[in-house]
Amino acid sequence: MSLILLIEQVLNGLQFGVMLFLMAAGLTLVFGVMGLINLAHGSLYMVGAFACAAVATATGSFWLGLAASLAAAAAAGALVEIVVIRRLYDRDHLDQVLATFALILVFSEATRWAFGSFPLYLNVPPSLSGAVTLPGGIEYPAYRLAIIVVGFAVAAGLFALIAKTRLGIQIRAGEADREMIGALGVDIARLYTIVFALGAGLAGLAGALVGTIQSVQVGMGEPVLILAFVVIVIGGIGSIKGALIGALLVGLTDTLGRFLLPIVFATFMDASSATSVGSALASMAIYVLMAGVLVARPSGLYGVRA
Amino acid sequence: MNRETAINTVLVAGLAAVPLIASAFDDPFIVTLATRIVIFALAGVGLNLALGYGGLVSFGHAAFFGLGGYAAGILASHALNYEPLATWPFEISGTTQMLVIWPIAMVVSAFAALVIGALSLRTSGVYFIMITLAFAQMIFFFAISWPAYGGEDGLSIYVRNQFPGMNTLDPTSFFLLACAILALALLFSSRLSASRFGLALKGARQNDQRLASVGIGPFRVRLTAFVISGMITGLAGALFADLNRFVSPSMLSWQTSGEIMVFVILGGVGRLFGPVAGAALFIILEHSVGPISEHWQFLLGILLLAVVLFARGGVIGVLAGGARHG
Fold first, then answer.
1. For B98-107, what is each residue's pLDDT tens digit?
2. Global pTM?
3. How far is A228 from chain B (nearest CA, A)?
4. Which terminus has fewer CB within 10 Å in chain B: N or C?
């Protein structure tokens, strides 16, 4: 096992982690501010990916597609919030789960209606298609490196938004006491729509960025959604910082587990069974991590309430 | 007789009439369809114990459904291939006897429910929903990547397992067998909800501090309910494996968890016959709208949204009216 390969895998883990962060940030914001559990977040990720693929194919520009993904997902998010989601804030979690499960069915079928069942493919933009040489002579795809940079930039922007801006103050106040900020004259309904659309836009961006690495298809959102749940459960629901730490932990655990576990098992097993045992255990690794975190801290690493 | 009892009677009569309707129309597929309804209703009866009576929103009951199915599939495949299941410390062979398979499926599911429940019940609310979902995903991914029993391709059971004195390959016999089990589960469920344990479980849902103050620990009550709930759903999984003569990781998928939950909620949470009504409506809808439009899931989504937003209490809640008791 060479060190260069290991560093490459660490970078892959980081890339996976920041992508999960983009998903988890929206989920955790929506839960923190509105107390809503949103299963349809994965559908917004899918909407972003399809919007990017459709616009990039039509115009030939990946960057226009990227902008379209943000706009389309945020618009879909705002629409869904106004039509359905805002009726759910006062309901219990069971109703929220079921209603957003229904939204997944609606979104998936509507997308299949519009685009068909075949996966679409997105090309990496030419300016990012090559590999870059990192210090130490490591060749790494420029596009994946760009995702890492974008992810950390979005994280920094989100922290600044929450900590410094007027909207951020309202979001934090909304987490603490929604009746009070309503009484102070903040338009709660508008704030909720903005927060939901912000989370949706981030999910759409994640979908578009990943759409170039994987294929764009119906149902692509749900596996990522479940991983994003694992992230926010580990990080503590409602905490952006927890979402970032949790996302990086999950990304690195999953990627390095898939890489290292078969190698570890190969030291005392024959090669083929080591691969199957190692990969079977690696696919469970993040859930074991989550169970471990919960045993130690039932409300997550940075969670404040159970 | 109040309206809920009347609805329940109609549901029972409807199931009893299935073999007659099928022979009148000379369409044995109706029986198979009804068997699906009965098995899904059984899975829902299991979930209803945790979800309806205990307020434990488990989004991971596919784990137990799938484990029950895999227990049946693995035992049968070993018996049919004449390979012992284990050779050490003593030889254990597979079996095709349902009477042996069912208890094993229930024990396997109960054990899984005990482990998952003991960890998940440390949390509550949204955490509980997500953690049960995550544990089910863990088992799902394990089933996909473990090649010994088919991995992603699933596992076929070439001949349906046997029940003494019965030809289980005959659709009507198998249907009646499934009905008998559903009836037992419903009887058990109604006895349980009226028992001291059931009252304690409902108390834990409504106010666990008050329950603790009268000297009953909510955690043990909830965990017991979760284990029983998992066992019943696991039994349904074993029957489902035999119905299809096929087990695959899709039984363990999060969509299956969602569907079992939909059966319960569509029918009416915490209503004894809620899962039966919900499963019947779901399957009938799937098969009546499915051929008309391949996008029937779109309609299902809209219907579900309407039920959640406007018809709280599910089908039985709307028809029978009144708040559910307990």
1. 888 999 999 9
2. 0.87
3. 10
4. N
